[in-house]
């Protein structure tokens, strides 16, 4: 159980709770049930939680799969700096948001789920996790080797002209040892 | 790429037929229960009080019963392995359907969640109606204690209400933690929350205790809609009196109501018992510890483990689940067998790739890194291997390689493990099978990976060559990383290096070539590798082929 990343589970749970809170709030407002003001609050709270939780955090170890279209949300959430990085803040924020949902029947489920998500975030914060934005990686081009900028000034070494003329007439006599090795052993 | 009807039916037909049957069963059950509650005479008064919410909630409840019953069956892995193994019971078509058991489980799970949402919404409406339309005429029918009682207290003071809330919570926990990204990154969270199903089923079986919904028992004596002569019902009085006189309906007695007996246990207890028996059987079977014979390190982070266990029988293509208490008491990891026990040699083996923390720690226990002071002297002391428990073997799609005339096996990287077992079985005796020709394509990132099974491939090639069947085994090796030049320079691996190609394989050309050499035949395609390869192959298997060959796609997945 040592290496579980609780934050990822908390994130999924919180996103789902946001959606459930939103749905319950819409039903409560549409039906004009008793206490529909709580339902209206739940709609706003649900939208806020969904926006906050949509961008996934970067995993500490392994590949992170981001949700589709999450880049703009990442930028917005990142802008709040330590408020969104720290999971203690998120745990207490979710615990505070979920309380008013418990007063109306339609939003009770969202309230309980958000409460569970808040507890899991607390566990993640105690284990020292924090939120990292997933930003697109800039491809580093391989640095151009210095030798490309300085082409050789001299032609490759050739045997002297007498030997070269001899090569055409006498092949065996023209043999010479290559000074440098051509294999990369 | 045009989709050919024949290929599509061969590949997808069975799955879609089962899907249609399941949807049909759900729809029929929903409609039947809906009509029963909306038109049934025994529910007449209840329907008048609650309205549409009654019918929808009961109909969704019956669909939930069916799906809660079916969702456990695909997870009885030992039973499915047994069905797969008996050729008398199952044909190749049935075995291919068994490959999709996990998808069926997911489909039933999604249906449970959807219909739970419908059921909960309808019952919430019912609770509000119980409170608003409190019936003074038939007090036995009421769930609320007085008119206008707060629905929240109605829910919290009845057994169905409290159990319903708990069930929804557990279901949500199970559903949210079974999403793909959590399964891939932290499998333990998924496994432990999913094991809450036992709590879910226990609470489900007592959900109906208390009888919130009642039906009328004395229909003959009190036909619904008739009026007692001394009862005042001002709205309908005139019309009903006239009708009563016309039709000669008389109420002889008051309406009696009885609550329903809980019915869910009829649906659910069978599969639940079956699943619990299966888990117990697996636990007992895996409680014999396994002797580790040897552990060998291979290039590219792969370790081969050879083990011995009493009465262990396995077929090629099956997998086992390993548990090592020295690493983690509760984690179980599946590994495909790369060597099955035979009559001559009883050891069985797996190849595991070191990827996550469990495999890392396990490898460290198996092959401890050499200590600095022991480098000079050879390691002579007795190797103390950790205790390991093996559960299995469980069936996989690759068991069917021998049941086609011609098979194509495509492996990506470590996905070669199920096929290694198949090749080993061919090496032991290739004549006894229906298989007449095997095409084997293995794609790896680095050339060092081929050394995992280089001996096996060369031995099989040599044996078939000597026994005058060189066309039985057609090998193609691909190295997908084209950046650095890689060679296999050993002389004894010449059959491999001469069949080695650099770059990714062109699947369409490979399938065309196989199709031309095997006209009008059914070729089994077995793929075990990354999603990109299996998607491409699946699409190509469904498309038209001028040679008349039908490619049946079977996929093995490691998730």
Automatic annotation (TrEMBL), chain A:
A GO term from the CC aspect = NADPH oxidase complex
- Could you give a GO molecular-function term held by this entry? metal ion binding
Q: Where is this protein localized, as stated in its record?
A: Cell membrane
The UniProt keyword set, sorted, is: Cell membrane, Electron transport, Heme, Iron, Membrane, Metal-binding, NADP, Oxidoreductase, Transmembrane, Transmembrane helix, Transport
Which residues, if any, are the signal sequence?
none
- The segments labelled Disordered in the record are 142-185
Q: Where are the transmembrane segments?
A: 38-54, 91-124
Q: Where is the composition biased (Basic and acidic residues)?
A: 161-172
Q: Name one GO biological process term.
A: macrophage chemotaxis
Q: Which ranges form a coiled coil?
A: none
Q: What does this protein do?
A: Subunit of NADPH oxidase complexes that is required for the NADPH oxidase activity that generates, in various cell types, superoxide from molecular oxygen utilizing NADPH as an electron donor. Subunit of the phagocyte NADPH oxidase complex that mediates the transfer of electrons from cytosolic NADPH to O2 to produce the superoxide anion (O2(-)). In the activated complex, electrons are first transferred from NADPH to flavin adenine dinucleotide (FAD) and subsequently transferred via two heme molecules to molecular oxygen, producing superoxide through an outer-sphere reaction.
Record's family?
Answer: Belongs to the p22phox family.
Subunit info here reads: Component of the phagocyte NADPH oxidase core complex/cytochrome b558 complex, composed of CYBB (heavy chain (beta)) and CYBA (light chain (alpha)). Component of the phagocyte NADPH oxidase complex composed of an obligatory core heterodimer formed by the membrane proteins CYBA and CYBB and the cytosolic regulatory subunits NCF1/p47-phox, NCF2/p67-phox, NCF4/p40-phox and the small GTPase RAC1 or RAC2. Interacts with NCF1 (via SH3 domain). Interacts with SH3PXD2A. Interacts with DUOX1, DUOX2 and TPO. Interacts with NOX4; this interaction mediates superoxide generation.
Q: What is this protein called?
A: Cytochrome b-245 light chain
TrEMBL record, chain B:
- Pfam families given in the database record: FAD_binding_8, Ferric_reduct, NAD_binding_6
Q: Which GO terms describe its biological process?
A: defense response; superoxide anion generation
Main subcellular localisation? other
Q: Listed GO cellular component terms?
A: endoplasmic reticulum membrane; focal adhesion; NADPH oxidase complex; nucleus; perinuclear region of cytoplasm
Q: Where in the cell is it found?
A: Cell junction, Focal adhesion; Cell membrane; Cytoplasm; Endoplasmic reticulum membrane
TM annotation in the entry:
16-37, 57-83, 104-125, 153-177, 189-210
Q: How does it sit in the membrane?
A: Multi-pass membrane protein
Kindly report, in one word, the top-level EC class recorded for this enzyme: oxidoreductase
Q: Known catalysed reaction(s)?
A: NADPH + 2 O2 = 2 superoxide + NADP(+) + H(+); NADPH + O2 + H(+) = H2O2 + NADP(+)
Q: Which GO terms describe its molecular function?
A: NAD(P)H oxidase H2O2-forming activity; superoxide-generating NAD(P)H oxidase activity
Annotated FAD-binding FR-type domain residues:
285-400
Q: Which residues form the signal peptide?
A: none
> What is this enzyme's EC?
1.6.3.1
- The entry's keywords: Cell junction, Cell membrane, Cytoplasm, Disulfide bond, Endoplasmic reticulum, Glycoprotein, Membrane, NADP, Nucleus, Oxidoreductase, Transmembrane, Transmembrane helix
Query: What is this protein's function per UniProt?
Result: NADPH oxidase that catalyzes predominantly the reduction of oxygen to H2O2. Can also catalyze to a smaller extent, the reduction of oxygen to superoxide. May function as an oxygen sensor regulating the KCNK3/TASK-1 potassium channel and HIF1A activity. May regulate insulin signaling cascade. May play a role in apoptosis, bone resorption and lipolysaccharide-mediated activation of NFKB. May produce superoxide in the nucleus and play a role in regulating gene expression upon cell stimulation.
The protein's name in its UniProt record: NADPH oxidase 4
Organism expressing this protein natively: Nothobranchius furzeri
């Amino acid at each position: 159980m040592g290496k579980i990343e609780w934050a990822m589970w908390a994130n999924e749970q919180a996103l789902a709770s946001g959606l459930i809170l939103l749905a319950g709030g819409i039903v409560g407002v549409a039906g004009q049930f008793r206490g529909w003001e709580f339902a209206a609050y739940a709609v706003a709270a649900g939208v806020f939680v969904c926006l906050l939780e949509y961008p996934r955090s970067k995993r500490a170890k392994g590949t992170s799969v981001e949700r589709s279209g999450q880049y703009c949300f990442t930028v917005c959430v990142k802008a709040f700096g330590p408020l969104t990085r720290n999971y203690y803040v998120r745990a207490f924020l979710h615990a505070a948001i979920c309380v008013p949902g418990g007063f109306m029947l339609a939003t009770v489920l969202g309230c309980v789920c958000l409460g569970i998500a808040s507890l899991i975030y607390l566990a993640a914060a105690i284990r020292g996790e924090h939120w990292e934005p997933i930003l697109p990686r800039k491809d580093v081009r391989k640095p151009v080797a210095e030798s490309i900028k300085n082409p050789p000034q001299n032609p490759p070494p050739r045997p002297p002209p007498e030997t070269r003329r001899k090569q055409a007439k006498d092949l065996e006599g023209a043999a010479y040892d290559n000074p440098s090795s051509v294999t990369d052993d | 790429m045009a989709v050919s009807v024949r290929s599509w039916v061969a590949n997808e037909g069975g799955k879609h037929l089962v899907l249609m049957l399941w949807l049909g069963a759900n729809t029929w059950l929903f409609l039947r229960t809906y009509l029963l509650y909306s038109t049934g005479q025994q529910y007449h008064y209840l329907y008048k009080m609650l309205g549409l919410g009654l019918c929808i909630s009961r109909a969704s409840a019956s669909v939930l019963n069916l799906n809660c019953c079916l969702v456990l069956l695909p997870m009885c892995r030992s039973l499915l392995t047994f069905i797969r193994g008996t050729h008398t019971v199952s044909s190749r078509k049935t075995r291919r359907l068994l490959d999709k058991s996990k998808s069926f489980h997911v489909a039933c799970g999604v249906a449970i969640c959807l219909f739970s949402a419908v059921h909960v919404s309808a019952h919430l409406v019912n609770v509000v109606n119980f409170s608003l339309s409190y019936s003074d005429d038939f007090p036995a029918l009421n769930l609320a204690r007085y008119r206008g009682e707060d629905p929240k207290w109605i829910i919290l003071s009845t057994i169905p209400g409290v159990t319903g809330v708990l069930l929804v919570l557990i279901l949500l926990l199970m559903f949210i933690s079974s999403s793909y990204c959590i399964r891939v990154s932290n499998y333990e969270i998924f496994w432990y929350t999913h094991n809450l199903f036992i709590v879910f089923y226990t609470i489900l079986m007592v959900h109906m205790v208390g009888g919130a919904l009642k039906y009328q028992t004395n229909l003959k004596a009190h036909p619904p809609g008739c009026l007692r002569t001394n009862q005042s019902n001002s709205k309908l009085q005139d019309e009903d009196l006239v009708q009563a006189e016309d039709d000669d309906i008389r109420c002889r007695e008051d309406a009696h109501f009885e609550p329903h007996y809980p019915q869910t246990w009829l649906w659910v207890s069978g599969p639940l018992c079956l699943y619990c028996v299966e888990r117990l059987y697996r636990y007992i079977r895996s409680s014999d510890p396994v002797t580790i014979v040897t552990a060998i390190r291979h290039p590219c982070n792969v370790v081969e483990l050879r083990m011995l266990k009493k009465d262990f029988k396995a077929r090629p293509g099956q997998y086992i689940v390993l548990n090592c208490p020295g690493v983690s008491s509760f984690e179980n990891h599946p590994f495909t067998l790369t060597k099955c026990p035979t009559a001559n040699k009883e050891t069985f083996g797996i190849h595991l790739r070191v990827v996550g923390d469990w495999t890392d720690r396990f490898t460290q226990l198996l092959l401890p890194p050499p200590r600095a002071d022991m480098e000079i002297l050879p390691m002579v002391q007795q190797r103390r291997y950790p205790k390991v428990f093996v559960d299995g073997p469980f069936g996989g799609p690759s068991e069917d390689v021998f049941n086609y005339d011609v098979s194509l096996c495509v492996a990506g990287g470590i996905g070669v493990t199920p096929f290694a077992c198949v090749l080993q079985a061919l090496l032991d005796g290739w004549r006894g099978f229906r298989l007449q020709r095997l095409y084997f394509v293995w794609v790896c990132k680095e050339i060092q990976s081929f050394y995992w099974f280089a001996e096996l491939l060369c031995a099989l090639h040599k044996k078939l060559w000597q026994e005058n069947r060189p066309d039985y085994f057609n090998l193609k090796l691909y190295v997908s990383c084209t950046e650095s030049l890689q060679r296999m320079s050993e002389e004894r691996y010449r059959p491999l290096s001469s069949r080695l190609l650099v770059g990714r394989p062109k699947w369409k050309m490979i399938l065309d070539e196989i199709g031309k050499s095997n006209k009008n035949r059914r070729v089994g395609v077995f793929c075990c590798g990354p999603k990109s390869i299996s998607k491409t192959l699946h699409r190509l298997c469904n498309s038209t082929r001028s040679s008349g060959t039908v490619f049946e796609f079977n996929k093995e997945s490691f998730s």
